[in-house]
Amino acid sequence: MGRTASMDIKRPRTDDRRVWDVVFGVYGFPAILLAHKLKLFPLIANRPRSLPQVCEALGIKRRAAEAILTAAVALGFLELRGRQYSLTPLAGGLPSRQKPDILRNVSRSHHQQLFGLFVGTT
What we know:
Elements: H1 17-37, H2 40-46, H3 51-58, H4 62-74, E1 78-81, E2 84-87, H5 89-92, H6 102-119
Antiparallel strand pairs: 1-2
Helix pairs in contact: 1-4, 3-4
């Protein structure tokens, strides 16, 4: 005991950020779209909220809220300080009542393209 294995850490040969963009695109987009449909961002825009407050206000279970909030933090739409979630400047650019619903239009287009790939119409 007390010994540590020696590791030879090598610098990656390529930048893997684009790969992660694809992965998060697959999982992140639905989470952000769901957060938008649940009106999570306007709720948090009023004031920072805790996980239990989000669950109560949106009427969703803890695990679902954790998944959505974690995705929103990971993608830069929310930040978590202490136990309070608040909007980032990125989330301030999301659609509101005064702005066109970009997410809904992108979602419609995104699903049409995916469906077209599976049925061979694109």
